[in-house]
Design brief:
This protein is mainly alpha-helical and 565 residues long. The chain has 20 helices and 7 strands.
């Protein structure tokens, strides 16, 4: 076995109060941004709609197929919502459904960060541990996605757990097998075939890596165990809901490859530039350094495993997904792990750049956030207030004095964190994570209400609910899945979707128009009963029309208002 690399400074000699301070920083990051807002599109409303349809007996049509407002969503997996449901039910009496659901994502994020912490500690012999977690919470792309409900964060956690399993292969093969099997199952639960590929493919490739040749039995055992569990679930799905299973297979096993418009490698490479900052430059530096033979070379477990995981995830999301930034989450854990081992080798000019860039740029951005909040709530400064009112029209919220108190406490902690100290690369990463967390907390504390005012559909759908017909069904045209989910979730209304207004067979039609498309129906056939939009969003509008001619009998029963969530 090759000797371990010594890292200076080391986490082994860290005083206890510093460990608790870093743990508190991670805790502040995890818990901020979970409450105080409605689900925002594009993704979270869909997943909240699936969860609501699963938990609400009046909306549930089955246990095996994900549904949103009565329409099947074959591109998603319902298994991860099964896993989240018990905790959501336990918290539902204390929190709204969407906020209780976000708590589950916080736990999945905690699992991922803890797995990265444990993997780094295992591979380095205890010399680096908190560093991997600090780099994780400093990655820009993880912030809003870790605090919104969705199945991609469990896949992120699964990849991190798989890295921990690889780190345990040498000293604890049974624990490694359990961790690797659990990682594959969780990834499959989150994203079905895509998640399975992201975790299982690199484990298969590691069987052929020389440094892991002695651990092939454990790797193959984990692959077999997890594959059997996934196959059992698929068999149960096919037996209990054969029609739903057939639709899932026809949708390319949930991937819907025929709907993809473009190939994604260049998109994901460009997205990583900001999504994985500041981890990716340090990871590249570590790989180039090890490739030249420094630090024990690149033929080591802590280098080979993350490289194979990152390359496999990149190939999988490029080939199997429509290019979307959220899939970049699967690349973060291996990049973070490489960066954790590369921090101590950074040159002074490089980590000083990261340090002062974070302090100055993010600090100035936090000041800008405070000024924007002051202009919204107090009208000062007047120059900013005149411009900002166009972005948050009709907002009448009161000053969040509790939010200002939280921002003040965060400011004091931030100043204490970046106070002058012995400068080194680890300090730069801690300062960066602290600056990003400070900015996130200030933005959530002061601007969450104005942001929710312009992003939420609650206002426009509540006004639409007042004009909803007392009897008769309502067709919908161009109403997206996320909007249908919010219509069901916020005001308990459901429509019958049709492709065009010519196919409408209900006495009322709800038309979702974006920049005038599709065109409005003729006044001779339809009378406009309602028109509304979200505050400040003049491009998107919802229009409710009533037929002026006698409609043909509808095939669907009258939609009665269901119980609110």
């Amino acid at each position: 076995m090759q000797p371990r690399i010594n890292h200076q400074p080391t986490d082994r000699n860290k005083v206890r109060w510093k460990s608790w301070a870093l743990l508190a920083l991670i805790g502040f990051w995890l818990t901020s941004g979970v409450v105080g807002r409605d689900p925002w599109k594009p993704d979270e409303p869909v997943f909240i709609g699936i969860l609501q349809s699963l938990l609400d007996p009046s909306l549930r049509t089955g246990w095996w197929r994900p549904m949103v407002a009565g329409v099947a969503v074959d591109s998603e997996s319902i298994l991860i919502h099964w896993l989240n449901a018990p905790l959501v039910l336990a918290l539902k009496s204390l929190l709204p459904l969407h906020e209780a659901a976000r708590i589950t994502n916080v736990l999945w994020t905690s699992l991922g960060v803890a797995a990265l912490f444990a993997a780094a500690r295992r591979w380095s012999g205890g010399h680096i541990s908190y560093l991997a977690a600090i780099i994780a919470i400093g990655c820009v792309g993880l912030y809003d996605r870790a605090h919104a409900y969705g199945p991609d964060i469990p896949v992120f956690a699964a990849v991190a757990l798989a890295l921990y399993g690889c780190a345990c292969l040498a000293e604890a093969p049974r624990r490694a097998t359990l961790a690797l099997s659990a990682a594959i199952v969780v990834a499959f639960a989150g994203r079905s075939v895509l998640g399975f590929t992201v975790v299982a493919l690199p484990l298969l490739l590691l069987c052929f890596a020389p440094v892991y040749s002695m651990h092939r039995v454990a790797l193959v055992r984990a692959l077999l165990f997890a594959s059997v569990v996934c196959a059992v679930w698929l068999a149960a799905f096919a037996l209990r809901d054969s029609a739903g299973f057939a639709e899932w297979v026809d949708a390319d096993f949930g991937l819907k490859l025929e709907d993809r418009d473009r190939f994604g490698p260049t998109f994901y490479l460009s997205t990583l530039l900001w999504f994985a900052w500041p981890a990716w430059p340090v990871a590249i530096w570590l790989v180039t350094l090890r490739a030249r033979g420094f630090g024990g070379g690149w033929q080591r477990g802590e280098v080979i495993a993350p490289i194979i995981f990152a390359a496999s995830a990149f190939a999988a999301v490029s080939a199997l997904t429509e290019p979307r930034a959220v899939h970049t989450l699967y690349l973060l854990p291996p990049i973070i792990m490489l960066a954790a081992f590369g921090v101590d080798t950074l040159k002074r000019t490089w980590y000083a750049l990261i340090d002062w860039f974070g302090i100055l740029v993010l600090g100035l951005t936090a000041i800008a956030v405070v000024l924007v909040a002051s202009s919204i709530y107090f009208g000062w400064p007047p120059m900013i207030a005149q411009r900002i009112t166009a972005y948050v029209p009709e907002f009448a919220g009161h000053a969040p004095w509790l939010g200002y108190g939280v921002a003040l406490i965060a400011f004091v902690i931030w100043i204490a964190l970046i106070q002058p100290a012995h400068q080194h690369a680890r300090r730069a990463m801690i300062n960066w994570a602290g600056c990003v967390t400070f900015l996130w907390i200030v933005a959530q504390a002061l601007l969450i209400s104005p942001a929710n005012h312009i992003m939420s559909y609650r206002g426009v759908f509540s006004a639409l609910d007042g004009k909803w017909p007392k009897s008769g069904c309502v067709n919908s045209v161009e109403l997206s899945t996320s909007q249908a989910a919010m219509l069901q979730y916020l005001v308990s209304r459901r429509t019958v979707p049709v492709d065009s207004i010519d196919e409408a067979n209900c006495p009322f039609v709800l038309l979702q128009r974006y920049r005038g498309t599709p065109p409005a129906p003729t006044a001779a056939d339809y009378a406009l009963r309602f028109r509304g939009n979200r505050p400040g969003d003049n491009a998107e509008a919802f229009e409710l029309y009533e037929k002026t001619l006698s409609p043909a009998p509808a095939d669907t029963p009258n939609d009665s208002k269901t119980d609110a969530p």
